[in-house]
């Protein structure tokens, strides 16, 4: 089961962190996410040690803890997706599909927001009953 999902910016700034457990575990999961950033940086900065996993953006298992497994994904723009699971026998392919789905939804959200802003900047007037009331 996924207990935490995080999206971290290219400067290691947290963009989104959501834990799906009790409040007591939230701080622990935030710490695990923060520690995983060091593992990602180590893999990116030492490609000889990380092996063939850098050929694709899915980094796979970053590290296991006693109760969790931490997986990572690095986009071309250096945005990091981190997923923490409690399933100790989870397959990499399943986690990869979840992360790809999250990325796909975020890209769609960004495109929708861009389209809304582009519509607001259009040169033609807006014809809408609600705007007439303003």
Major sheet: arrangement of strands: 2-1-5-4-3
Distance between the termini: 49 Å
Q: Roughly what is the average pLDDT, rounded to an integer?
A: 82
CATH topology: Beta-Lactamase
Q: Structurally, how many domains make up the residues?
A: 1
SS class: alpha+beta
CATH C-level category = Alpha Beta
Strand content: 15-25%
Kindly provide the radius of gyration, computed on alpha-carbon positions and rounded to a whole number of angstroms: 19 Å
Task: Give a quick account of the main beta sheet: strands, pairing sense, barrel closure.
Answer: 5 strands, antiparallel
Report the principal-axis shape: globular
* Low-pLDDT segments: 128-134
Work out the helicity level.
40-55%
Order of helices and strands: EEHHEEEHH
Quantity of strands, as a count: 5
**CATH architecture, please?**
2-Layer Sandwich
By DSSP (H or I, 4+ residues per run), the number of helices equals 4
